[in-house]
Design a protein that fits this description.
Bound molecules: zinc ion
Helix content: 25-40%
Strand content: 25-35%
Number of strands: 23
CATH class of the largest domain: Alpha Beta
Largest sheet: 6 strands, antiparallel, barrel
Shape: elongated
Radius of gyration: 35 Å
CATH topology of the largest domain: Threonyl-tRNA Synthetase, Chain A, domain 2
CATH superfamily of the largest domain: Threonyl-trna Synthetase, Chain A, domain 2
Oligomer: single chain
């Protein structure tokens, strides 16, 4: 796609070495664009912010937004002026057959109330009903580079250009998106008002939304402060209005957010006496409809701090889910919700202590067993080769036992196995012994396709399931004695 000239915001933070004006001059661009723009994370291939299409690219030492002006006939967006309109009549302008490897037919209408994914907001779903009352499911809605809106149908349909249709947008999903998106405006403005922190991007997901703030850190007090302020604005039920202004006018208004596009008709969304920004999304008509806002996780990201949040019905749903999980945890500990963190901490400490005690006990046991085995062996004969297979102890214990035998102070060889899953062999000899444990292990394992290895004094390996471990030990012992 061809981009008509370089203009737009500079992604990179301004530095004294590279003032914005100098870069704009170098690329022959006169545009004066504020830094507060709304991009995806660069370097994105291409994006849309609801007011224009742009691509982020590296030029003259900075990330630039290259904006394409919309010149082709765009679909008339009914939601621009009436975001509450969910039922509408429309005419098919074009039918786009599925692309190779795709199944969905695309339908372009002359007018539509369906919102396409753009500006961080997700697409609407709904139905298109034909004159013969066939109901076609709209599974996804997207925007083309030239500003047309494509409705992707779940199943193929025999539609032709010029056909009359009735469109119905799914109410619940749209209302949810309006709540999330409007909540985002209020929250972003609250962060500016309280901490002078600009929002640099917005993401809406199925579960939660997030904004990226231009700040280096965010304390939990600041999170609580922004949440409180945003909820105040919601409670005050301030009017949210939409109007269209020229770019020159917009620049004079002092918007919180001005898109990089050089379009002359900007859609301005205003939260009365609180926020003014250019946006193409669907919003509620008064802040009370947002319901409430709940801030959740925050994390450091490359461009600042990311704040996750939910609005409207999602607040109760998310809180309910959290409560259920926390209640279950409290039930397991037979404690109150607020005591769960302390109980978890105590449980961690207990586990750590028990693990330490268990390791000490196992080491003592291995030591005692090694001494007993050596004594028994020494009484019978002077060959100090200990052959032992453990059915009820794991390979780590087998290793511990073998090491205790080898380090007992008496020159000895330990040929040890564990038949517990995963079964394995451990061969060890006292330092300076004349045998080669690594070579011996390899020699035994090769007969059954096992894997392992080690040094002259210590070797360890795994044996395949179902193989006769006792027989392998005898084979190794035979080699030592020979
Ligand atoms: Zn918006």
């Amino acid at each position: 796609m061809a981009y008509t000239g370089l203009c737009g915001g500079i992604w990179q933070k301004e530095s004294p070495l590279r003032p914005r004006e100098a870069i704009l001059a170098r690329i022959g661009c006169q545009a004066s664009v504020p830094r507060d723009v709304f991009p995806p994370t660069p370097p994105g291939p291409e994006g849309s912010n609801g007011n224009g299409l742009f691509r982020v690219q590296w030029a003259a030492g900075a990330w630039l937004f290259c904006v394409r002006h919309r010149v082709v006939a765009m679909t008339k967006r009914l939601y621009y002026t009436n975001p509450d309109l969910l039922e509408f009549d429309a005419t098919v302008e074009a039918v786009i057959p599925p692309a190779v490897g795709q199944e969905r037919t695309g339908v372009v209408l002359q007018d539509t109330a369906f919102y396409p994914t753009s500006g961080g907001q997700m697409y609407d779903t709904g139905w298109l009903t034909t004159g013969s009352k066939d109901r076609l499911r709209v599974a996804e809605v997207a925007e083309t580079e030239d500003g047309r809106i494509v409705h992707y149908l779940e199943a193929p349909a025999g539609l032709v250009a010029g056909a009359a249709l009735h469109g119905s947008v799914d109410l619940e999903r749209r209302r949810d998106h309006m709540q999330q998106h409007s909540g985002q405006h209020v929250l972003s403005a609250a962060f500016v008002e309280l901490y002078q922190a600009q929002t640099v991007s917005f993401h809406m997901g199925e579960d939660y939304c997030s904004i990226d703030l231009e700040m280096t850190s965010l304390s939990s007090e600041q999170v609580a402060g922004a949440e409180r302020r945003a909820n105040e604005i919601i409670f005050e039920n301030r009017l949210v209005t939409i109007r269209f202004v020229s770019r020159a006018e917009a620049e004079k208004l002092g918007l919180r957010k001005l898109p990089p596009a050089e379009r002359d008709d900007l859609r301005i969304v205003e939260v009365a006496d609180f926020d003014l920004s250019a946006c193409g999304g669907t919003h509620v008509s008064a802040t009370g409809q947002i319901g409430s806002i709940l801030l959740r996780k925050t994390e450091k990201v490359r461009q600042g701090v990311r704040v996750e949040f939910v609005c409207g019905d999602r607040v109760a749903r998310t809180a309910r889910r959290d409560y259920t999980a926390l209640s279950e945890a409290a039930g397991l500990f037979s404690t109150q919700l607020w005591d769960v963190p302390a109980q978890v901490r105590k449980s961690f400490d207990d586990t750590k202590l028990l693990r330490k005690q268990r390791d000490e006990a196992l080491a003592q046991l291995a030591e005692a067993m090694a001494v007993a085995a050596l004594n028994e062996q020494l009484e019978r004969q002077d060959k100090k080769v200990i052959v032992r297979s453990f059915a009820d102890r794991d390979i780590n214990f087998a290793k511990l036992f073998a090491q205790k035998v080898a380090r007992s102070g008496v020159p000895a060889i330990a040929l040890v196995a564990s038949t517990m899953d995963p079964a394995g062999l451990v061969f060890a000899q006292s330092a300076g012994g004349t045998a080669d444990m690594g070579a011996l292990l390899k020699q035994v394992l090769v007969t059954v396709g096992g894997r392992g290895g080690g040094s002259r004094d210590f070797a360890q390996g795994g044996v395949p399931a179902g193989c006769d471990v006792e027989q392998l030990l005898q084979q190794a012992a035979g080699t030592i004695e020979a």
